[in-house]
Amino acid sequence: MTPIRPRGAPLTPLTAKERERFDFAVIAHWIPEGEHVLDLGCGDGRLLRYLNESKRITGYGVEIAHESVLGCIRNGVDVIQIDIEGGLSGFEDRSFSHAIISQALQAMHSTERILNEMLRVADEAIVSFPNFAYRVNREAIASGHMPVSEDLPYEWYDTPNVRFFTIADFEALCDKLGIAVRERLAFDAFGQPVTDDPNLNGSLAFYRLGRA
């Protein structure tokens, strides 16, 4: 994986642009060249464009917001405008190598359905999300406030997030659904890898999932 910053650069929290590039690079690390990919909640298609340019993938984005769909078109990304909360019935079983949901699962209501559908239509699922149990978030709660951080940038009254979950919570759900965690990566707010107690020290989590 290409580092976001040169070796020896001072550690400061990643900017919004750096976080996006970091997220894309981690996901691309798990996708072989030329794969067929489905990106759920794809926004304006920047991730798929990145994967096309770096890994020559093919695939589709799925998005509900009209403005984001127009952004996909501007980015040269094939997009289907549907609400993924209702499932992916328009896609056949195992029609993709990878299904991705990048930092959007926390904004979904139908969490179990979405995870199951991802692993119906694809051989593997890649999921990234902010870890609500990150120590900085715990400190905010202990001080009596909802956390606002680089990976949870919204105030409580304007957040699009409807699910606040942790690394431990997510892995418990995977176990319940019979989903195998094939690989997990966790990083702190500076983009540094975390191996010591990721549920406490990891701000952002990435998972490569398959069927058990």
Describe, in short, the structure shown.
With 212 residues, the protein is an alpha/beta fold. Helix content is 32%, strand content 22%.
Sketch the major β-sheet.
7 strands, mixed
Helix content bin: 25-40%
Strand order of the largest sheet: 3-2-1-4-5-7-6
Using the 3D structure, state the CATH architecture.
3-Layer(aba) Sandwich
Radius of gyration (Å): 17 Å
List keywords for this structure.
Rossmann fold, single chain, 7 helices, alpha/beta, 32% helix, 212 residues, 7-stranded mixed β-sheet
Tell me what you see in this structure:
- The chain has 212 residues and is of the alpha/beta class.
- It has a single domain (16-211), classed as Rossmann fold (3-Layer(aba) Sandwich), CATH 3.40.50.
- The protein has 7 helices and 7 strands.
- Strand 1, helix 2 (46-55) and strand 2 (58-63) form a beta-alpha-beta unit.
- 36% of the residues are buried.
